[in-house]
Each structure stands twice: as structure tokens, then as C-alpha cells.
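Q: For a teaching handout, I want to show students what a protein-ligand complex looks like in C-alpha cell form. Below are the inputs, and the small molecule is pyridoxal-5'-phosphate. Please produce the holo structure.
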Amino acid sequence: MRIETIAGHAGREDFGMLGVHAPPLDLSTTYPVLDAEQATASLEAMAAGGPPKGNPVYARLHNPTVARFEAALARLEGAEGAVAFGSGMAALTACLLGARQVGGHVVAVRPMYGSSDHLLASGLLGIAVTWATPATIRAAIRPDTALVFIETPANPTAALTDIEAVVAQAGPVPVLVDSTFATPVLQQPLRHGAALVLHSATKFLGGHGDVIAGVVAANGEWASKLRQVRLLTGGLLHPLAGYLLHRGLTTLPLRVERAQTSAQILASRLAEHPAVARVHYPGLPGGDPNHLVGRQMAGPGSVLAFDLANPDQADDFLAELTLVTHAVSLGSTDTLIQRPAALTHHIVPAEDREAAGIGPGLLRISVGLEHPDDLWADLVRALRHHPAITARPRAS
Ligand SMILES: *Cc1c(COP(=O)(O)O)cnc(C)c1O
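A: Here is the structure, written as C-alpha cells, with pyridoxal-5'-phosphate included.
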């Protein structure tokens, strides 16, 4: 089946048997024990990272509504399992804690989401990090390296990294891909050899700006390990959030494709605008130097970034926008814009930010489902508003 069909039907296989048409929302924190031996056996199965054997026992161990979303996401990613968490950062923390059991070192590539960068750089979890480029991963690997971590497309520049090339360099070390910007509609990292794929489900998967969540899809052993970490550390997803995410998946392919069409239009127009120095988008000429769109990504996505010719005008420009909302986050039905150096990546030291291509005037847009001409009218009016926005020679 194609992705559109899976998105609408996965995690619903037992509806006929249940006699329902929408997913039941189970808010139970505990479950009555009808058979004591069976409940203990079920508890043991879950403590080993597996599914319950009948009785879910306690909601920190298992929730059927969340499990439906996980089953659907696993199908979309071509994974054996998926494990949902209370946020993208809780999901990343679980991956790092799972890796910690193997070794205390991670190799990571910048840029990546600011808080992910900070979690690694802080050493909070007792894990040392070596920052590498896609070309220096092999050299950065040590005997205690437990994970190679990349984000593609990267937040905020939408730069693409070749997953297969990273997997080849990582050798036996598992590769974790944060695929939040791509969604399983545009990219399925496990098919390219990654061991784990992570989503901030807060973004496109939820898709309506009303759920904070994270999810990791992986094959057998890793999925079990992550379930064990979740059970012990309690970074759960609430069942209502699981319900909303499962519902969000049904429209995910439509939303992603429509937003991508608009992003391509806006990226092309911004690239022609004299007040814009440079647009970062894999759908523009030169924006995908390794030719990954078509091979790894089904399309360039709907997040783009651009540098104003005059970076000092960035905040004034943002304040002029009326339709596009100046706010962090992305992947919602409406268009959001923000300045990473001031917000999402503010926590990353300035010199590391700049080295990763995140200048003070870089703006990131997550294009929503509005008509692209209305979005363009808002952007162009705000660009024109400031006579001080002066054209400079454009780099490609
Ligand atoms: C937002 C984001 C995260 C963190 O997710 P939360 O749900 O906010 O905890 C991780 N990675 C990427 C790429 C993100 O955009």
C-alpha cells in the first residue's frame, strides 16, 4: 500500500472486531486484575520491553490509545516498532540513555535543533560528544562510541545529509536520524540503514500546534530497549496526545505535500527578492548539492531559511508580519517564522552557531496551508516596509 493509504488505516486493524470506527480513548491509569498469574506474566513481558500479555497493569507500562499511534508510525517508517514520549526531547533523552548502556560517547553533526545540541554539549546525561561533519564521522568514532546522531533535513537550515554515506562511515555503530522536518512522507531513514528515527511529533505529525510529543521508530532490540527506558524514567505520552497524533497521521501526506508546494513557490520568490541575501532550501538550484531529493527525500519539504541582506533589520521585519506568525515551532497548519539565533538556537554558543551557518539574520519559515499568494503578499509587504533594508550582492 502507498503512504496515503497506510496513513489513514494503520493502527486501526482491530476496529472491525471492536465494532468501532474511531480509535477508543483509554484514560485509565490502572487496570483491574482479573487473573493474578496472567497480570504478573504481563508485567514481566512489559518489563522486558515487550507488549503486554493481556492486562496492561498500569498506564506507565502501556496504553492502548498510544500503542495505536505507535503501530501506525512504525508502519509509516517501515520499522518493527515505535515508542512515543512526552516530547521530542524526552525521546532523544531515551535514545541517549539507551546508548549509555553500551558506551559513553556519541558522534554528532551540526547544525541540529538547539536543545538537542545543548543536551549533548552539556554532558548532562554523562555522555561525551564529538562534533563531526558528514565527512569526518569515521575518524570521530571511538571504541566507546554508542551512537552516531544526525538531523536531516537539519534545523534550521534545511541542509540535507546523506544517510547511507553516514551509515557506511559509522560501521557497526547505530545511526540515529532526527527526521522531524521530513516526516515519513518524504523520508524513511531505516530504509537507508539507520537504526533509529526520531520525530518531534509536536511538529508535522500532530500538525495542528496543540500537542507536545516525541516518537522513535526502530527495529526489535532498540524498540524494546526504549520501552524499558520509558517505563523506568516515565517520559510518557498522555493518551489524549496519542489520540490526536493518530488522528493527525491521517492527513499527514496531504498536509506535507500541500505545504511543500507552497514552500517551493515562496523559496523561489524570496531568492529573487533584492532584500534577501540567500535562501536555504533543498528545492532551489544549488540547495541540494548531494542530489538527495529524489534519492533519499521524496521532496524538499516545507521548511526553509533565508538571510536578509541587512541582518540588523530582521526583528523589525518580523514585527511587520501580520499573517505569518512570529513564533517558534513548525509543521503546523499555519505559517510560522522565527530567528534561530534569538530563539531556537540561542542556547548554542554564538561561534558554534555561526560555524553551522546560523547567522544573526537567518530566519526560518515553516510554511503552512494558507494560499501561497497570501503568504507572499505578507512577506513582501514586510520586506518593503523598511527603506533601510538595502540590497547587497547576492551569494548563490
Ligand atoms: C522541536 C524539535 C525537537 C524537540 O522536540 P520537542 O517536541 O519540542 O521536545 C527535536 N528535533 C527537532 C528537529 C525539532 O524541530
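A: Two things your students might notice: Residues 187 and 297 are 5 Å apart (CA to CA). The chain has a mean pLDDT of 95.
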